[in-house]
Here is the input.
Amino acid sequence: MRQRLVDWRAALDGAALAVLVTLPPTVAVQLFKGDDLDGQESNLWVVPVVAMLVGFFLAGRRAALRRPEAPLAHGAAAAAVAIGVLAVLTVARRLIGGDGIGAPLVVTMVLLVQVTVSIGVLGGYTTTRRRK
Here is the structure.
């Protein structure tokens, strides 16, 4: 029997960490500052961005540590699962709120997938470094 490239339990474990790190600050800033006028937004938007960078890095690292024989694949898989969950939540929130789904959101989501999966791979890569 052939072994699979990705252990999805390890990827889900990493993805859960990314969602747990990213979602609370994002929701908090949206709740407290989501009604800011365009061009007059608070600087608090930086907090969810930093949380996303840290969360996806840690997700890739966690998944890669569970499967060191394929760290990059597991880092990418963890990040892909996490951004998929966050994308579904974002689309659902927008549809429920009546905001709709337009081309700007689709472009933003596609770019976020690229960035977050790359950060997950970077997190996985850090597990390959040997200490001297």
